[in-house]
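Hey,

Quick one before I head out. I ran the complex with S-adenosylmethionine overnight. Inputs first:
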Amino acid sequence: MTAYDGYGAIARVYDKLNAELDYGAWADFFEACFDRFLPTRPVLLLDLACGTGKMTLELARRGYDMIGADGSEEMLCEAMLASDLDEELEKRPLFILQDMRAFELYGTVGAVSCCLDSLNYLTGNGDLDACFACVHNYLDPDGLFLFDMNTPYRFREVYGDRAYVLEDEMEDEQGNKKEIYCGWQNAYDSQTKLCQFYLSLFEQNADGSFTRADEVQTERCYEFSEIKAALDRAGFEFLGVWANFDFAAPEENTERWYFAARAKKNT
Ligand SMILES: C[S@@+](CC[C@H](N)C(=O)[O-])C[C@H]1O[C@@H](n2cnc3c(N)ncnc32)[C@H](O)[C@@H]1O
């Protein structure tokens, strides 16, 4: 059963809308973290909230055994399709439909990644604790947890109450070009720390008309101290937080924090 339904219609165009993201550079950063914080490179990895599988497939192409987990059937369908079409892959990832607050794996993994503010989608009290406890449970002793989160600065100063329109083109099933527009209105409430994203997607049909689909997503703004305390409670050793893939220290106007934490276990 779907655990997250905020990525229904948007799943088909998600990669187009995020085309500027450099998952190669992001995976280089993960591998630099493996070199820095693990005695040997991990073999089996979990990409949590994998979405359309951009990072899952990037790491699979680098030779890691990959599990991709997500709560949206639509996003996982896109991931599986991309995996089937990827000729560079020697070993296809295992994709599973799981809620990141209560997921189950067959065994432990050497590292867990969770990319692109997926953890900000945990909006309920206790959700972050539940997710971190699961991640800790399924990590090998001293296994690595690599994740990012949007900063309070981004919620306040960048998202705020702004609206955006993204325009692009893609091919339909017959290979014909079609236009897509995604309107995106934000509403950030500094009291509740919740940010609503009202998304309207317009996809061109073969006859030139457009079909509209609407979706509402919610992200929660977490303070650094809340994230750090949740890691402590789950049994993680906090290894660092950075502003970019060069391990630069975060500043006042940093929009995304990149975290590394190690699962401490009594073995
Ligand atoms: C911004 S997307 C990021 C996807 C992917 N990590 C990437 O880098 O493109 C957030 C993802 O979190 C997933 N998600 C949100 N809440 C979830 C939950 N409770 N359990 C599992 N996945 C969830 C969504 O389905 C979506 O695929």
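The chain has two domains: 9-152+222-263, 154-220.

Talk tomorrow,
K.
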